[in-house]
Amino acid sequence: DMDDFKDAHRKWNAMPWVNTMATSRDGRAVYIDGSNVGRLSDEAIALWRARTETDPLTRAFHQKMGLILLDGSDSRFEWQAHPEARTPGVVPYAEQPKMERADYIFNANDSYWLTHVANPLEGYSPLYGPERSPRTLRTRMNAKLVSDTAPDGPAGADGKFSLREMQQALLGNRSLTAELLRDELAAACVEKPTVEIDGEAIDLAVACDVLQGYNGRLMLDSKGAVLFREWITRYDYQQTLKDGPLFATAFDPKDPVNTPRGLADKDLALKNLGLAVQTLKKAGLALDSTMGDSQFAYRGAEKIAIHGGGGAEGIANVIALNRYDSQAEQAQAEKINGSKGLTDKGYLVTYGTSFLLSLSYTDNGPLAEAFLTYGESGDPTSPHYTDQTKLFSRQQWRPILFRAADIDRDVTSVITLTGPKER
User: What is the C-alpha separation between 138 and 349, in angstroms, rounded?
Assistant: First the structure.
């Protein structure tokens, strides 16, 4: 799954957006992308849009890398002055994407467009990011979570999130692709429980049963989550954004949360399921394996089971593998042939969900709980090297202390730093 995760983040990281959100105890929530963005004229924007249709290089930069290519030799693309701009040639505050709401705002590393599902932000410079374009699976799942006010929805009967309901929504680990495709895949599997791959007949009967029983989540005990992951990651990540071999129904800008959807090529789907079955067999994992069986953060000599998923699964709680420089020794493992993320030591988590803060304003002041999922310390000899990773694994939130008396009661040590006095 890491390859898909990286593909998605390459495009996100190429974008200039700086999504900033704030809320207050009186019920106001504010969003703004306050990036320093060059101010283009309407003519320049129209010219650029035309070139994305006629110029292969301009189109490739935008579609493949999320970059906007402008002709520096054409004076029509010069930055335009504005009397209220804080820096000459940049977009002023008045023209930046922003929104204030009393119900919700959200962002999941995407552009400003779907800050509120029912009231998209439109009419801004494309240098701030795309509008009326497919959203990532992660954005779509977050949109479902925050906009669902049904009595049995994540916000409860009153349609308003309590602290606990917010935490449960985030770490409920619902997979959007499972919710969109699992039933159709299972039905196709039951209808045709054998598939031929390279001349070998693969029995899918057990896989069919596992998919029918899969709860569509990536909790530690979700049976079938590994099988579904190995199936969905057989598709290129870009296929999750449009109709094609994966989704039957194309993206609709009037229904961006629910499209694309529907299983398209059932024969290809069953072939990919057969390949997923073969992959789990190579790894020595049962077809009903869970995240608890297969996904770990290796911290020193310990391995800690981790819930959550990647970009292709469409989940709010995104975790993945990313190699990085650290004083801590990282687990070495051999990749299972045919899988994008599975190794002989399972899925190795080193990246993704990091600091999580959940906060509620109450009559008695702020109430907040959090995780620093990778631990307070990077020193493997420290007791704080694994403590919060274990808390995250158990979904056991730790309290955030605001009051001086609470902080004083929680002190474990005091270090006083001194230096030579200046004469």
Answer: 18
